[in-house]
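During the reporting period the student researcher (J.K.) took over the structure-prediction task from the postdoctoral fellow and processed the backlog of single-chain submissions. One of the processed entries is reproduced below for the supervisory committee.
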Amino acid sequence: MTFGIPREAESAVAGPGAAATAVADVRPPAGPGATAGGAAPTAPPAAPPAHSVEPPAGESAFDHHGGEAYRPGTPHAQARIDLAAIRANVSRLCDAAGSAEVMAVVKADGYGHGMVAAARAALAGGATWIGVAGMREALALRAAGVPGRLLAWLLTPGDDWSSAVAAGVELSAGAEWAVRAAVRAAHAVGRPARLHLEAETGLGRGGATAGDWPALVDTAARAEAAGSVHVVGVWSHLARADEPGHPGCDRQVANFRSAAELARRAGLTPEVLHLSNSAATLTLPEARFDLVRPGLAVYGLSPVPGLAGPAELGLRPAMTLTARLASVKRVAAGHGVSYGHRYRTPRETTLGLVPVGYADGVPRHASQAGPVLVAGRRHRVAGTVCMDQFVVDLGDVPATPGDKVVLFGPGDRGEPGAQDWARAAHTISHDIVTRIGARVPRTYTDGTVSDTR
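J.K. obtained the following structure tokens:
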């Protein structure tokens, strides 16, 4: 018998209000007290004043640019995050969870959406917990003023356990050393550490195996009796929840129940048992227990793309990634494009240069395949994705430098989704959104539909 590890939860608060806000970088701060250059402010910043620059004679500021004013200082690329979509997705997940509480997972900078902003939106949508992987993420959320119950689970001996305990961060312990680290931190700050014991139920990753579980439970029970810790949870993580009906899920649920029962027999009375990620929250009712930990679904992406898309699950993708053409030129048939000339134009055509590349998170594995929307039409990456740019063969579509290119979004105007890029790059949608880098500024909206014309 084996027992597993968790992974998912998110929260954010952004009340209804302004449409698009200013571009904001929401990377976590460097340390617990930092606020600049990383964590987003407690509310998205106000939009900067528009530049008072007149367009060229005879040309409107809206010409050739997807219906949006194009002015000096406009980012050449941006990830637009719809906070209303995150709130609505969390509300949908709360409905799916039934009597279980919802922990919104905002690890990896909120799956690329901005950790602090995503956490606030998720809390506003009904999540009662926030979950992250690392302790630094948890401390950054606390430094940014994000309230509520907060769990961090991917911990090492070198982490700042004392600061986490002092900040009220709940911590995972999947081995006896982690309980001892929590005890030392509790003594250092003068308050009990709140622990969630992690069982290995079949994922083969973190957590105590069936053979090690009794010793972990006994060590935690003795620490709790001494007043050093409070065991508030028992948890694990599913290996194949994205394959509904797979027998491995049933085995893990059974193993998890056995682990929880052993903990109870040792005298522990955890408040919450939690096993479910996004996929299990939506498709596996028997795994919901007291708390679910959705991550991907918080951001409106399907955790079971082979079974259903976001709309079918009642979700809305929150990120729209756009860029502006940097160059447009007419070339002859047989013209080689990008490194290695993996693509040659089949006829006279127009090439558009898109100024984002793999340094920005556009997967190089999507060379020759990544889909984009330009002027209402779908096109694919032509040739190799470079560090800072890629090329699109536009055929005879009229185009001008500055025109909008939509890499992915919710699909309202026919643009590709993150899952389309995942298929093109032979990966998963989690990988697509989390890889969008710091060079691409985040712009926050509150319920406005992104213009992808």
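The committee noted the following: The two ends are 55 Å apart (CA to CA).
J.K. will present the remaining backlog at the next meeting.
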